[in-house]
UniProtKB/TrEMBL annotation:
It comes from Abiotrophia defectiva ATCC 49176. This is Tryptophan synthase beta chain. One of its GO terms (molecular function) is tryptophan synthase activity. GO terms for cellular component: cytoplasm. Coiled coil: none annotated. Pfam families: PALP (PF00291). The lineage of its organism: Bacteria, Bacillati, Bacillota, Bacilli, Lactobacillales. PANTHER family: TRYPTOPHAN SYNTHASE, TRYPTOPHAN SYNTHASE-RELATED. The gene is trpB.
Length: 403
């Protein structure tokens, strides 16, 4: 996005968020914001959304007491919110169903999306297949090479996958290409954005579609324990599963909220994606937020073992919650995440996504310091089947971490 930037007064979380985009994109965003305002509280729209969450995606997802993990760590009681049990194995479909139903209401025939590792692309392609819409997915050419299986899944589902050859050939260039394609076809195209990031209204809309996670979890913990948890922990890439897991607990000041970012090879290296820990405030992907910038103001290349967490920015509401002190954001390295993944797999028979394993790494640090009458809810944002080959490679390169 190199054109002149405009800024609207809506959609701010404190100083963060907003809409820093060229005028032609702003027109499309205004149209989207208006449509979303019209439908977000519409009982028919919400009934349809919850119908597909239930019968298509398999909600509600369980809140599972991880007894073996709790005993092993010897502290707080640990509950897992099982977003890994959604159709397609992650929380992403919660958001995609909401956006596709809105696209239908707006009369759009075509959806586009960006994707990094391919998880959001697969979810969008599946929903497009289900609702009979044409689907174009933009993916960095390097990611296309690294994620052949997801590329083939998207193609099976009827999507056209565009390999973006610019720059580093990863997610950032895919986002730029998707915005470019949106500008080309703004009349009939809906851009399904994959996280709680980007210009207004996306961060608020994606939060609304993901807050079902904490609506369920809050009710479930009250049923099981008769009280609220002491802490909710979730991993943060763009921040959609975390904001969904935090949303309904935000007014409960006794519930600590902890987001976990990818520290990759370590914060002292240049191979990490610890945006809120080490970033500075600036504009990226149409929003004002914390991001990792080079000295010349360009966006830093980021790294994590987990393909869902290597994003150089973060959703603006997380930037706000950090500065307001309502949520804390901490890093976890590749090694800590892999260890956490192996521990949950061995103790509970659940292979979590490597993204979610960053949140579990924080549970491993925190739970032993808490008392047995305290409660942690950790959001297991996805399942780890997709990561098995990467874990095998990691273990081969790090024999000290053997199974
Ligand atoms: C995409 C993804 C994430 C990261 O995205 P957020 O928007 O930060 O939630 C985390 N976990 C899984 C399983 C994912 O697929």
């Amino acid at each position: 996005m190199t054109q002149e930037l405009t800024q609207t007064p809506t959609g701010f979380f404190g100083e963060f968020g907003g809409s820093y985009v060229p005028p032609v994109v702003q027109e499309a965003l205004d149209q989207l914001a208006e449509a979303y305002d019209r439908y977000k509280d519409d009982p028919e729209f919400l009934a349809e959304y919850h119908h597909y969450l239930k019968d298509y995606s398999g909600r509600e997802t369980p809140l599972y007491y991880a007894e073996s993990l709790t005993q092993h760590l010897g502290g707080a009681k640990i509950y897992l919110k099982r977003e890994d049990l959604n159709h397609l194995g992650a929380h992403k479909l919660n958001n995609v169903i909401g956006q596709i139903l809105l696209a239908k209401r707006m009369g759009k025939k075509k959806v586009i999306a960006e994707t990094g590792a391919g998880q959001h692309g697969v979810a969008t392609a599946a929903a497009a297949a289900k609702f009979g819409m044409s689907c174009d997915i933009y993916m960095g050419a390097l990611d296309v090479e690294r994620q052949r299986l997801n590329v083939f899944r998207m193609e099976m589902l009827g999507a056209t996958v565009h390999a973006v050859q610019e720059g580093e050939r990863t997610l950032k260039e895919a986002v730029d290409a998707a915005f470019g394609a949106w500008i080309q076809g703004i009349e009939d195209t809906f851009y399904v954005l994959g996280s709680a990031v980007g210009p207004h209204p996306y961060p608020s809309m994606v939060k609304d579609f993901q807050k079902v996670i904490s609506q369920e979890a809050r009710r479930q913990i009250l049923e099981k324990e008769g009280r609220l948890p002491d802490m909710v922990i979730a991993c943060v890439g763009g921040g959609s599963n975390a904001i969904g897991a935090f949303a309904e607990f935000l007014p409960d000041s006794q519930v600590a909220l902890v987001g976990v970012e990818a520290a990759g090879h370590g914060l002292q290296t240049d191979r990490h994606a610890a945006t809120l820990t080490l970033g500075t405030v600036g504009v990226v992907d149409g929003m004002k937020t914390y991001a990792l910038f080079n000295e010349d103001g360009s966006v830093m290349p980021v790294y994590s073992i987990s393909p869902g967490l290597d994003y150089p920015g973060v959703g603006p509401e997380h930037a706000y919650l950090k500065d307001a002190g309502r949520a804390k954001y901490v890093p976890a390295t590749d090694a800590e995440a892999v260890q956490a993944l192996l521990l949950l797999t061995r103790l509970e028979g659940i292979i979590p996504a490597i993204e979610s394993s960053h949140a579990l790494a924080e549970v491993i640090k925190r739970a032993p310091q808490m008392s047995p009458d305290q409660i942690i809810i950790v959001n297991v944002s996805g399942r780890g089947d997709k990561d098995v080959a990467a874990i095998a490679d990691y273990l081969q390169a790090h024999p000290e971490l053997k199974l």
